[in-house]
Amino acid sequence: METGTMENADAGPVWTGLPPGLLRMRRLLLVVWLGLLTIAVGLLFGLLAGPVWAAFALLPLVLMAGGWRMLGRNWRSWRYTERADDLLISRGVLWREETVVPYGRMQLVEVTSGPVERHFGLASVQLHTAAAATDACIPGLDPSEAERLRDRLTELGEARSAGL
Fold first, then answer.
1. CB 82 within 8 Å of CB 74
2. Model confidence pLDDT, tens digit, residues 37-56
3. Is pLDDT larger for residue 72 or for residue 131?
4. Is 84 helix (H, G, I), strand (E, B) or coil?
C-alpha cells in the first residue's frame, strides 16, 4: 500500500504529512540566521552605545523561540493526498488553504532541490497547470518520494488529458 493513495469510504482520504527533515532544515536556518543577528546586534550596540544597550541582542533570541514553535506548527499543517481524479494539498495554521489540482489539468510536474535542500536530503514537487493560480508545490519530500510522486502524477495527467 502506497502512502497517500488510498481513500477510506468512511473516513475520507488518507493524508500524507511532510518528513521531519524539512522541519530540521528550517529550524537550523532559523537558528543560524537569528544567531548571527544576535551577535551582530550585540556587538553593534555594545561597541557604539555601551554594554547596557547590548541587551537589545536578546530580541532576536525571543524571535528565535517564537519562530521555533511557529515552524513546528506550520510543518504539521502541511499534508497531501492523491485522490481518484486530483491531488489535494492542505496547509496553513491560521489561514487554512486547500489546493485541488485535477490530474487532467497538469501541464508540468517538476522535482527541484536547491543546495540546502540537497544537503538535508530533501526535494520539492512543483505542479504547473494552465491557470497560474492553481500551481502548487509540496516542499521537503524525500527525493525518492518526490520522484515517485512526479512519475505518478505525470502518468495520471497524461491519462486524464488524453480524454479532453
1. no
2. 999 888 888 888 877 777 87
3. 72
4. coil
Whether the pLDDT of residue 75 is over 90: the answer is yes
Alpha carbons 160 and 22: distance in angstroms, whole number: 32
Query: Do the beta carbons of residue 17 and residue 81 sit within 8 Å?
Result: no
- In angstroms, the Cα distances linking 7 to 80, 81, 85, 145 are 12, 9, 12, 19
What number of residues does the chain have? 164
Sign of CA dihedral 64, 67, 73, 75: negative
150 within 8 A of 109, measured Cβ to Cβ: yes
Would you say the pTM of this structure is higher than 0.85?
A: no
C-alpha cell at 111: 522535482
Given its phi and psi angles, is residue 22 left (phi above 0), alpha (psi -120 to 50 degrees) or beta? alpha
* Residue 51, CA distances (Å) to 19, 36, 47, 54 in order: 43, 18, 7, 5
- Helix axes 20-48 and 58-77, enclosed angle (nearest 10): 170
Which is it for the CA torsion 23, 29, 33, 36, positive or negative? positive
123 CA to centre of own chain: 10
